[in-house]
Amino acid sequence: MVTRSLLKCKGARWSLLGSFLTCAASIILVLLGAAQPAYTLPPIQKVAAIPAFARKYGLPCSACHTAWPELNYFGLAFRDRGYQMGNDRDSPIWQDPSYWPVTARITPNWHWENTSHQLTDEVTEAPGTTVTQSGFDLSGMDLWLTGTLFKNISFSILPTTDNTATWHFENAFVRFDNLAGSEWLNVKVGHFELDNLISEKRFLFLSANGGLYQNYHFIPAGDSNNFGIGDNQSGVEVQGHSANSYTRYTVAFLSSNEGGVGLTSSVLAPTPADNFTGRTYDWFFSFTKGFQTGSLGLQRIEPFFYYGQRPTVFNQMVGGAPLAGTGTGNKPFYRVGVQSDFFLGKFEFLPFFQHSEDNAYLANSLASNTPLSPGMQNAIWNGGFIESHYYWNPQLVFVGRYELVRMGQQGNPLNAGTTGNIDAYSFGYRWYPIMFSRAGLAWHTEYSITKSIGIMPLSLDGSGYLPATNTTPVWSSSVMAGFDFDF
Amino acid sequence: MQRKYIVILALVVVAAALSSALLMLAAPAPPAGSATVAGKVTYTGTPPKMKPIDMSKEPVCAKEHNPPETTENVVTHPPDALEYVVVYISAGDQPGPTPTQAARYDQKGCVYTPHVAVMQVNQPLEIYTDDPVAHNIHPMPKANPEWNKSQPPNTPPIQTKWEKPEFIPVKCNIHPWMHGYFVVLNTSHYAITGEDGSFSLKGLAPGKYTVTAWQEQYGTQSQDVTISGSETKTLNFVFKVLPYAF
Amino acid sequence: MKNKFIALSFFSGSLVLLLATATTCLAQIDHNIVSVTKTMTSNVEGKTGRAYDGGQLRPDVGVQLFRRYCVGCHGPAGNGQGENAQWIDPKPRDFTVATFECRSTPTGTLPTDEDLFNSITRGFVTTRMPSWSALTTQQRADLIAMVKSFSPRWENEKPGTPITIPPEPTLTVDSVLRGREIFDKLQCWKCHGPEGHGDGPSASTLTNDKGEPIPPYNFAIGTRFKCGATNQDLYRIFMTGLDSTPMPSFADLLKPDEAWDLVHFLRTLQVSLKTPELALFKQWEAAHPGQLKPLGQNPGTGD
Strand, helix or coil at A89? Predict the structure, then answer.
C-alpha cells in the first residue's frame, strides 16, 4: 500500500533542489517481513541558543543565529573568540553584579512515532507488526551556563536532562582564549563538542528520527566501536581562527572513549560490557576555509580527520565487567570527510560527506589476541547528507535533509552486503513569533522517516531490537510539533 | 496651415517660459518700504532669579567677574522688560539679498557676547576669542550640519555661515556654563530687544505680515499686522513668566 | 490507515498555520523598519550596497540585514531607540541626524561610505558596538546603505572631502617635545588631564549632543581609540574632530608637521602600551632631569 502526501508550497521561491527536498511528493510506507522492535524516544534536547548572551550584549537572537540554535558567521566568530565580542567589555566585571549567565531550554511537544517490523507479545514472529505511538510529551531540558570568567578565559557548564529530569553533563570546559595575544591560539580543556562545522548540537531538527545525523553516530552491525563524531568528547582542544573566523583550524587530543565521565563510556550504555574503554587517546583535526562570493554570501568548507583507537582485550574485570580505562589490544579506526556550508542568498546548503574505516578486530568485536577468521576484514563505509534551509526572513525557516549511509565493505562476514545501509529524509519548519534580546520562542514542526536495513534503527537513546534478518528494511517515521523556548 | 499655428504657439510658450525664468533670476529685492513696526516685549508674573556662575574651574576668567557673572536664559530689567528677545517677520516677507557684513560673536571672560547673535541665512559669521584660555565652539543645530572646532587663545576668528533658518544653541564643552544662541533667519527685518525691551522693524513695504517674538525659555508668540502705507504700527508682546528656569 | 490520516491532517493543519503566520511575520518585519530614502545605495570596496530591493536573490537586502543585526540597539527607525538602548552606555548612534564620530572628512560634513564601512568593520571598543568583520563585504555595503537611508541629509548633501594625511615623519624626541608643547598650548589637558588620564578640570562636566555624560579618552589605560589604532587614525581623530561629542577639530590650528608632533607626544601618554615614542621620551627624560615644565598650568595663575 502506498500513501501519498502532497504538500503545496504556495508563495515561496524555491530552487529545484529546494523543492525536491522540502516539498516531498510522496512518502511510501511498506509493510514487509520480520518483526521490529518498538522504540519511541523523546527527542533529547540539544545545546541551545543562549538568551543569556542576548541579555549581556543587547543583541537579538538573530544577530548570532541564522535561526537559533544554528549559528551564523557572526555568531561563530563570537564563539571562536571565547564568547567574547572583543570590545574590552566581555569580562563579567562589566556586567551588573546581578547578571547570571544562565539559560534554560525545553520543548513541550506533541509527537507521533511509527515503526515497522516490530515484535510484540502478541506478534512474536516475522514479519512482525507496525507500532504507532503518539501523545503530548516533554523534551529534555538544557540548563546552560556559559560565558567568560575573566577577559580571555571562557567557560561552559551544560547539565542536561532527558524528559524525566535525569541529569548528565553534555559539556563542561574552560577555555583560554587568545593566548600570546593571538586569536590563533586558544586552548580548551574539558568535555566538549568536536569542532564540526555542521554542528549536531546546534541544528534545526528535534524529532526522534530527524533529531540526529545518522552519519554522526552510525556503527556497522557487529562492530564494537562506540565512536560517533556527533558525541561530545573529553580532552584538550587547540584551536585558532582568523579575525573574522573565515579561516580556522582545530587539533584535539581526546580520551579514547565515548566521552563519558569516570573514564567510562556514556552512562546510557545498556550493559556493563559496553564499557569499552582503554588507556589510549584519539586525535581530531579540522580546517575551515570561508570564501566570499559577492551577493551570494559566504561559502565555507571544512575537511576533517579523526583518528582513534579502541581496546579489544579486557584482562581486568570486577564482577564480570571490565574495569573502566583498563582495556588493551588497541585497534585503530578513522573518519575522514568534508563538512560544508554554502549560501545562495536566502538558501543555505549543508553538504556532508564522510568516509569511515574500522579495523577488522573492532568490526567483529574480536579480542586482538585471537586470530581473525576468514572473511573478517576492516569495515568501510561512506555516508553523507545534504541539508537545506530556506530563511524566508529572520523569523521563519524551512528545513529539509536527505541522508544516506552505504556500507562499502562489510567487516563482519555474518552481515549481508546491504546490512546497515540507511536512508533518512527529514523536513519541517521553525517559526519564531518573537525575536528579541531577552528570550526565545519557536514553533517547530517536523516530519522524519528513516529506512535502516538489517539493523536496529539509530535513535536518540540507542534502545530497540535487532530485526529478524540482516536484510530486513525497517521503516521508522516521526512527526513532531512543539514549542521550543528558552530564556 | 495647421503647422504654422503650432509653431507660433510653441514660440509663444517658449517666450513666456524664458521671460518668467528671467524674472525669477532677477530676484528683485523686496520692494523698498518705509513703514515701521515697533513695540516692547514685557513680561507678567515673577521671573526666575538668574544664578551666579561658578567659574572656579577657570580662575583666569573668574577673576574678571566681580561680582560673578549670572546665567542669561531669562534676562529682565525693571520695570518689566525682557532682553534678548528676537522679534522678526516670520511670514509675508521676502528674504532679500544676503548681507555681506559679518555677524560677530565674542568669547570674553568665558562668556558669550552677545548672548544671542542674530543673522541671516548665508550671512558670514565671525567668532572671536579674547580669552587667554582655550574654548571650543560647539553649535548644536538640527537642520544645519553640526560642527565642533577648537579655539585656543590668540588664534584668528572662525569664519562660518548657516544655510538654513534655525535657532541654534551654542555651547563650549570646556566651560560648561557657557551658553548662547545663533538665530538664523531668512528675513532682513528683525531686531533683538535691549535692556528696555523695545524693538523696531523698519523699512516695511505695504502688505500682510506675521511678526514673531522668540525667547529662548518661553518659546514664540506671533501676531499679524497689515501695513498699508508708511505708518508706524505698534505691536507689543507679553510673555508669561514663571519663577523657575528650565 | 488511520494513523497515516492523522499524520496527513496534522501536516495540512500545520501548513495552514504556517502560511498564516508567514504572512503575519513578513509584515511584522518589513513594516516596523522605516527608511526615509528607500533608494539609498552605497559604494564601497567595489561593491554596491542597497537598502531595499537588491534583486531576485537579495530582496529588501539592507532591511533584512538591519532587522537581523542592528535593530535591537539602533531601533526600527534608526534613531538609537532600540529595545536595548536604555541599558546601554554609551547610547547607540542615532542615524536620523547623520552625525558620526569617525570620519575622514572635516567637522560638520558627512562621512564617506568608506568611513562608515570601516566603522562597522572595526566596531567600537568599550562600547556595545561589535566588530561586524565576520559579515561579508557585500553585506556590510548593504548595511551602510541602510544606515544612510535613515536621514534625509544624505539625499541632498555630498560627503565632505577627506582630509589629506601626509606621510608620517621619522620619530624623533624633538618631535615628541614639540608635541608636548602643543598639548600644553592647545590646552588638551583641560579635558584629558595633564597625564592624559581623562581627569582634566572640565572632564566631569562633559556631555554629548543628547546631554548624556561622556568621559574623555584616557590615554593611560591604552584601549584602542574610538576610530582606529594606528598613528594615522590618531592624526585623523583630532584633525576632523569627533562630531556629536565634545572633542573638537583642530584642523584650522595645526599644520601637518605640528599634527604629527602631537601624535608622537600622545603616544607617550599611552603608558600601558609601551610605545616606541614612550621609550624614546623616557630615555630623554632620564638624561635631562627636571628640565620639563609641568603641563596643565592655567595661564596667568601659576597653578
Answer: coil
CB contact under 8 A, C21 and A8: no
Q: Which residue of C has its CA nearest to B169?
A: C209
Q: What is the DSSP letter of A313?
A: B
Which C positions 236-295 lie with beta carbon below 8 A of chain B?
241-253
Between CA A465 and CA A288 the distance in angstroms is 39
Interface residue A395 vs chain C (CB under 8 A): yes
Look at residue A15 in the predicted model and tell me its pLDDT.
39
Contacts (Cβ under 8 Å, ≥6 apart) of B79: none
- H runs (alpha helix) in chain C: 2-32, 61-69, 71-74, 113-122, 137-148, 153-156, 173-185, 189-192, 231-240, 256-269, 276-287
Q: Which residue of C has its CA nearest to B58?
A: C298
Q: Where are the alpha helices (DSSP H) in chain B?
A: 2-26, 59-62
Nearest neighbour of A112 by CB, restricted to C7, C73, C130: C7
Which spans in A146-239 are helix H? none
Q: Cβ distance A476 to A113 under 8 Å?
A: yes
Chain C neighbors of B175, CB-CB under 8 A: 202
- Domain C173-287 sits in CATH 1.10.580.10: no
Fold of A35-486: Porin (2.40.160)
Q: For B99-110, write each residue's pLDDT tens digit.
A: 999 999 999 999
SS3 state at A268: coil
Q: With beta carbons less than 8 A apart as the criterion, state whether C117 and C44 touch.
A: yes
Q: What is chain C's percent helix, strand, coil content, to nearest 5?
A: 45, 5, 50
Residues of B within 8 A of C248 (CB-CB) are: 136-138, 148-150, 173
Cβ count within 10 A of residue A371: 7
Which of C185, C189, C202, C247 is the mutation pick for testing B, counting most B CBs within 10 A? Answer: C202
CATH 1.10.760.10 location in chain C: 41-156, 173-287
pLDDT at A271: 53
Residue range B81-122, pLDDT digits in tens = 999 999 999 998 888 889 999 999 999 999 999 999 999 999
Q: Is C16 on the interface with A (CB under 8 A)?
A: no
Phi, psi of A437 (to 5 degrees): -105, 20
Tell me how many degrees the CA angle A446-A447-A449 measures, rounded to the nearest 5.
145
Which residue in A has a C-alpha nearest to residue C64's C-alpha? A393
Fold of C41-156: Cytochrome Bc1 Complex; Chain D, domain 2 (1.10.760)
Which of C6, C25, C273 is best to mutate for the A interface (most A CBs within 10 A)?
C25
Instruction: For residue B95, give the 3-state DSSP assignment.
Output: coil
Helix C61-69 with C2-32: angle, nearest 10 deg: 100
